Automatic annotation (TrEMBL):
One of its GO terms (molecular function) is oxidoreductase activity. It holds the Pfam family GGR_cat. It comes from Haloarcula japonica (strain ATCC 49778 / DSM 6131 / JCM 7785 / NBRC 101032 / NCIMB 13157 / TR-1). Residues 192-243 form the Digeranylgeranylglycerophospholipid reductase catalytic domain. The keyword Flavoprotein applies. Keywords: FAD, Flavoprotein, Lipid biosynthesis, Lipid metabolism, Oxidoreductase, Phospholipid biosynthesis, Phospholipid metabolism. This is Digeranylgeranylglycerophospholipid reductase catalytic domain-containing protein. The keyword Lipid biosynthesis applies.
Length: 411
């Protein structure tokens, strides 16, 4: 006899767990399949800086218990300058945050199965009707949701999203103690989340210090595996080599040591616009269809908002009298994603690409530009406001714009 649920979700990260939480609250039978074991969850998937802002905290009822440190500022650093924006945020203990989401979903009736790696869709008449996991195990559902992140075993086999590795960002992060967060030669990072634009440290990407209290911080970097990275990369150096290089060259880390018992946080994401996010009986959420803010990379809130949009779409599609999970009906999720989750996504992606094409000297100029245009500029840019982007553009940026156009046209 076929085992069946209303909705099956692959992946118990923030998006998958939030979607299960919302659907279970609406009394749907929901199954979440998670690759990792429950003992010590999360392990390998504990891969986020977990910096977010108060809109996410209040919008999803995230409790103080999973917050490592509340912050007052976002700091952008360039090789020789910095800019401070006053904005309250929170650095989460990511493992505890994910455990809280799982517990919330279970309390509302969602079923979780750990040690359950989803491998392939089950297809009937050209439509997905369930998933295979752990080899030959099968489960069926009216709607299947891929929340596995860049792995995307279902989205890829259904030819949804069109994810390409040449636009993939990879990152690594460790938790440190002994970090001098108020060093005289740098911005004061007490109670701050800092992102540094510096190709010497993170070619084609950025590095960060997120203060987690006292002399502790999350320290890491990421870069996008594309032309910008290749242009600025050092021969033979990988992601871990760049982090060690930064730790060795920045005096803020002279006395820093990795906190005993903490794990490396590793992750990846596709930095590209998704072609689509749904088809018959199927939706992709979270880092399977990611979107991040250009200037401070916050993605947790966007992932959870995509989960909520998918849950609302599923709720509408699974009407008791006339359920309709066709591609046409589930395309409402795509509309919600573009209007509510990631409005002006193409403009925001353009800013991200232009940012990493710029040379180090332009980053110093960017800090001055931000000071001269006012505190709202960052918010406007992260919202995809092309006029705000234009305010930061100079005639000397023409080579960057030409290179961006060439890449977009694949010349």
């Amino acid at each position: 006899m076929r085992e069946r649920f209303d909705v099956v979700i692959a992946g118990a990260g923030p998006a998958g767990a939030q979607c299960a939480r919302d659907l279970a609250e609406r009394n749907y039978e929901v199954l979440v399949l998670e690759t990792e074991s429950e003992d010590g969850f999360p392990r390998q998937s504990n891969k986020s800086t977990a910096g977010t802002f108060m809109s996410a905290m209040t919008g999803f009822g995230i409790p103080d218990d999973v917050v490592m440190n509340y912050t007052d500022n976002v700091v952008l650093e360039s090789p020789n300058d910095h800019y401070v924006r006053n904005q309250t945020g929170a650095v989460l203990e990511f493992a505890e945050f994910k455990q809280w989401l799982v517990s919330e979903g279970r309390d509302k009736g969602a079923t979780y199965r750990f040690d359950s790696r989803v491998s392939a869709p089950i297809m009937e008449n050209g439509e997905i009707v369930g998933v295979r996991y752990d080899g030959d195990e099968e489960v069926y559902a009216d709607i299947v949701i891929d929340a596995t992140g860049p792995a995307a075993p279902l989205a890829k086999k259904l030819d949804v999203c069109n994810l390409q590795r040449d636009h993939q960002a990879i990152g690594v992060e460790y938790e440190f103690e002994g970090v001098e967060v108020d060093h005289d030669d740098y911005a004061d990072l007490r109670g701050a989340m800092m992102l540094r634009l510096d190709h010497d440290l993170a070619p084609g990407g950025y590095s960060w210090i997120f203060h987690t209290g006292d002399d502790t911080a999350k320290v890491g970097l990421c870069y996008i595996q594309n032309g910008s990275h290749q242009k600025y990369a050092k021969d033979g150096m990988g992601i871990d080599d760049y982090l060690e290089y930064w730790l060795d060259s920045d005096p803020r880390f002279d006395d820093a040591e990795r906190i005993e018992g903490t794990q490396a946080h590793r992750g990846s994401a596709h930095i590209q616009p998704p072609d689509s996010m749904s088809t018959d009986n199927f939706m992709a959420i979270g880092d399977t269809v990611p979107t991040v803010d250009p200037l401070w990379g916050e993605g947790i809130h966007k992932g959870m908002k995509s989960a909520r949009a998918a849950a609302a779409t599923a709720d509408s599609a699974l009407k008791p009298n006339e359920p309709d999970t066709s591609a046409e009906n589930l395309s409402v999720y795509d509309q919600l994603w573009h209007s509510e989750v990631a409005p002006k996504h193409n403009a925001r992606l353009m800013m991200t690409e232009l940012l990493y094409l710029a040379p180090n000297g332009r980053y110093d100029q960017l800090m001055e530009d931000l000071r001269s245009t006012g505190q709202d500029t960052l918010r406007q840019i992260n919202g995809g406001d092309r006029r705000a982007i234009a305010k930061l553009t100079h005639l000397s940026d023409m080579p960057i714009l030409v290179e961006y156009a060439r890449r977009r046209l694949d010349i």
